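Reviewers of the previous submission asked for a worked example of the structure-prediction workflow described in the proposal, so we include one complete record here. The input consisted solely of the amino acid sequence. No template or homolog information was supplied to the procedure at any stage.
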Amino acid sequence: MKVMAQKKDDRRAAARMVREQIAKEQRRRRMIWGGVIGAIVVATAGMIVWVLLQSNRAAEVFTPANANASGNAIVAGTGPVIVEDYIDFMCPHCKTFHDESDAVIKQLVAENKISFVTHPVAYLDRFSTTKYSTRSSAASACAADGGKFTEFSDALFAQQPAEGSAGLSDAEMIAIGRGVGLDDTFEQCVTGGRYLTWAKKVSNDATSAGITGTPTVLVNGTKVQGNTAAILAAVAAATGSSSPSPSAS
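From that input alone, the workflow returned the following C-alpha cells.
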C-alpha cells in the first residue's frame, strides 16, 4: 500500500511539474508575442506618421517670389492698372496672344502704367502625355524665384511644343532656364518639383474665379479681348487717358 501511495504521489508531482513547465512556457510565449506585437504596433505607428508627414509635405504649397497677394500669380511692374492674364504654356492661342501683345505689355510695365499679373494655369495636362502644363507652370515659378519669370515665359512660348505631345522635358526646360541666366538653384527647384502643388493651386483658384479657358485677360477685374487694341483701350479708360497708345519708345 505504501508503495502504491508513493507511486501515486510521484505521478502527482510529475504531473504538477509538467503543468508548471507548460504554464512557464505559455508565459514565455506570451511575453515573446507581446514584444513582437508591441514592436509591430510601434513600427506601424511610425509608418503612419511617416506617411502623413510625406502626404502633408506633398500637399504643401510654396509661394514663389514676386507673387500677388493671393499667391496664385506672378506680378511684373507696379503700375496702377491691373492687367491679368490666364495662360497655359501648352495653349497655342496663348502663344498667339503672347506674340501679338508682349511688346506693348512690356512697354506699359516699363512706363509704370500697369501691373501685369500672370496666372500660369495647368488646364491642358490632358493634351500632354507628361502633364506638361503643370510642369511648365511649376518651372515658371522656379524662374520667378530667380528673377527671370518673364524671360523664361518668353522662351517657353518660343519653343512651345505641339498639343498631344509629351511637351518639353524637365531637362529641356532646365536648359531653357540656363539660356536666360538661371542657375543651379533653378535646376534643383525644377527637378525637386517644388512648385507642382503651386501649379495646381493656380488652376484651382482660376476655376473658382470662373476662368474657363485660356488666354483670358482682365483689366482691373473686367474681362477684355485678348489682343493689344482691347488692352490698350481698357488701360486708357482706366487711367482717363484720351490715347490708348503707350508712349513712343
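The domain at 74-239 is CATH 3.40.30.10 (Glutaredoxin). We consider this example representative of the routine output the project will generate in years two and three.
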